[in-house]
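Researcher: Here's a chain I'd like modeled. Treat it as a single chain, no partners, no ligands.
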Amino acid sequence: MSETPSTDISHDQHTVRRNKLAELRAGGFDPFRANVEQTHFSANAVKLHVVGQDNTVTVSVAGRLVTIRDMGKSQFVKILDQQGQIQLYIKKDVVGDAIYAAFKKLDLGDFIGATGTLFLTKTGEVTVRVEKVTLVSKALRPLPEKWSGLTDSEQIYRQRYLDLIVNTESRNRLMTRSKIVSHIRRFLEDRQFLEVETPVLQNVAGGAAARPFQTHHNTLGVDFVLRISLELYLKRMLVGGYDRVFEIGRNFRNEGVSRRHNPEFTMLEVYQAYSDYRGMMTLVQDLLRSLCEKVLGVSEIKHAASGEMINFGGQWREVKYKDLIIEKTGDARWFSRSKEEKIAGVQKLGLHADLKWEEFELTNEIFGKLIEPTFIQPTFVTHLPKELCPLAKITPDDPTTIDVFELIIGGMEIAPAYSEQNDPDVQRAMFEAQAGEEQQKIDHDFLLALEHGMPPAGGMGIGIDRLCILLTGAESIRDVILFPQLRPGS
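Model: Modeled as a single isolated chain. Structure tokens:
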């Protein structure tokens, strides 16, 4: 359906639609109904049709008008619902003169409900032969032009609802995200993990090294921080006798924004008593293979940046962190070198070396910039420096490392996992070493919980947003978050 052109098309169409709204109300018609019958979504309805049995199945569908093809005394239109599009055939002789005349006044973007029988058109498309149709919600503003869609990236994220209407790729990607999260829950519940909820407002920002957002509770007169991690409260659940727990929840970090970072992000954290980091290896392999098979229907996916096929079904590589550093630097004595020698080594590799950095930070700069991005196939990097995480067990045969892995796929970290530290004295010493003089950052209540006894456990975190970037081939974290944080619009 075309609309009168003008210098400001959007403004002109808004005026035209407002006038139509007034006419509808003046005629005693409610353009914003409370409900309408919907027996089937579009894809479910299409599946009901049996070839050679036209007009034997009746369905009631509802959705947004996205295509109108006017043929005079009949119209072919398409509506969009949660599952996609379905075609409707509205004929004047069937619905009657008054309803047909009213239907011809509808605009793209309007929501309608329709009831009719399924048939196959000459072009082979399953279509609803409409017997009843009604407007259920009037769209007062026009949709973006069908072919150009949304080209302004800022508008895509700021007006995500429009992006979902006109951009099939974006719509499918974000629906896939929902399916991924749903499948993760089922996968873990099938293995007797219990989903729990832990506080977002916390007294101490524990479980990670990140700058928190701060807020104030007026009634209690207490300052809180928004959590930066789920970890410490989930471990309290292990102390309390929950052997297998997980949480899928929002974390908040008042830090930079990038292609892989958003200040508000979703994490899965899972803890299993009487397991360790190797138990988590098995769990994450089984989980990702299940996601590929059950949600994506594949065993390998294409890495968006390189075009390389990532194989989830094969053998996943396992390699120690120290071995990777020695290989990259070509220096077998790297870990016994002085800080000055390490600074020179980092600079020799073409990287920035801040004089204020600790030695482990200099080494990790090499790993993060030159090693991690090269691992496209699933790779477990194990036994990281103990300074990188105070919450994991020290490796028995190497007191400088911890029993952990970082799972890297597609050049980015997907899941860290630990053999969890359950010795309260060692944990206290690790916290104090990390905090230095800032003792108020130590979660003393968590240490008190540990002193009551926590079973040995394996723990793992998976960034849901990064996982969705990987599995959907998205370019940015903003493409897999429905409403990413933006500066206020004008």
